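User:
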Amino acid sequence: MKSEMVMKGNWKMIYGIGLFLLGVVGLAARGLYFGIFDITEWASLSLLLPAAYGAGWIERIQQKRDGTFCGLDAGYASRLGERVSTGVKQIYRADVAFGTYRRTFHKPWHRWFIAFPKVEGFFLNLVFDVSNQQLQLVEKPNQRLWSNQTEWWIEEGGETVGEIKTDHTFRHAAAFSEVLRMTYRTEQYQIRSSKLSRRVEVLQQGATIATSKRKRNLLTFDVPKQDAHVALIAGMVLFRFHYRE
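Assistant: Predicted structure:
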């Protein structure tokens, strides 16, 4: 895998302050060049600062809650309230720590780019550390320039052991379904969910073998006890990142 770059920060606040500064420059330049000064516009622009700090405060709370999540009474669970930082998220099996995952970025401008609304799913790479096993989901580069299909390599122990790709078809669109196809160590899976549901299913040969449900920011998983259960959880977490709802 290429060397990853881990970046931390309160990105929504930075984004809001950046917009404020751009607005100040724009209004000042217009005022100096055209002699136009509108106090209402300046007052509206000033509201960006408290909004930026408010969004940053909420983001910081979500990061902290994701990192300190301590599990439920039973089953696999995680908390995913914040999607764009590199903060560590916890996975628990009942009340016992099972592993962690985090987002990574290969280049600094990737992190700045996704601070804009509606593009937080771009440059999506995830690293899972579970029971001395590290699984990396690495987005293949440059594909978005000519296609709306996104693909990821699955890497483990320094080797590529599978791949995940979006599956956009008219049939899925007509059924309001979002679908990923996953290959892991020769096994084939389909990860899917209806746009009208908060339930994600993993199917193999047409049969549902694992599920995930979302209640607000809480994710729960029902996965079989098998060698691929970490990969199934990772695939469903990736689904939650890529398809936000």
